[in-house]
Design goal:
Length: 182
Amino acid sequence: MIRKNLQTLLITSIVLFIFGSSFYFGYKYAVFNTDFHHYSIMLEPFLDFKNSFKLNKDIFIQYGNGQVYLFKILSNFFEINLFTIGVFSQFLFSLKFIIFFFILRFFVDNLFSIIGVIIYYLLYTFTQTISSDIYASFFLHLFVLLYLYNYKKNNFYLIILTSFLIFLTVFFRHTYLLNWVA
């Protein structure tokens, strides 16, 4: 019993360390190395939308409309600027490590799940540029996790939720549709 608790504590600590260090490095990068090109591509459509311009008519949307609506919702809680876009994007990016661990748990045990998350972390510790890919991939990770969870249960509400998550994936990065069409 104690050994199982220690193992769970160790696994939780490793996953939380990976999440925390990814967020810390990304936060520092967002503060000191703001990439004005990518950050502006994300910020400008939101600011235009906030100033009553129409999406896809007056505003050029390169990847998807999702981030404009997300920033509109988030602007009710905090100011949207270059800094907050970088920090929020990094937060979602870092959450993917936790979600990825639980995805791997459907296929392999704790040890191999941790190894998989560590490899994922070593390949892509934090995001250096922000784009709609971060948001789309976050929702895609959530989709896979809930799809696997619901695979044998066939819960109608989870089917609706997973369908909505795949919609959000495309809504944040509509160029994903080009892969399906081509």
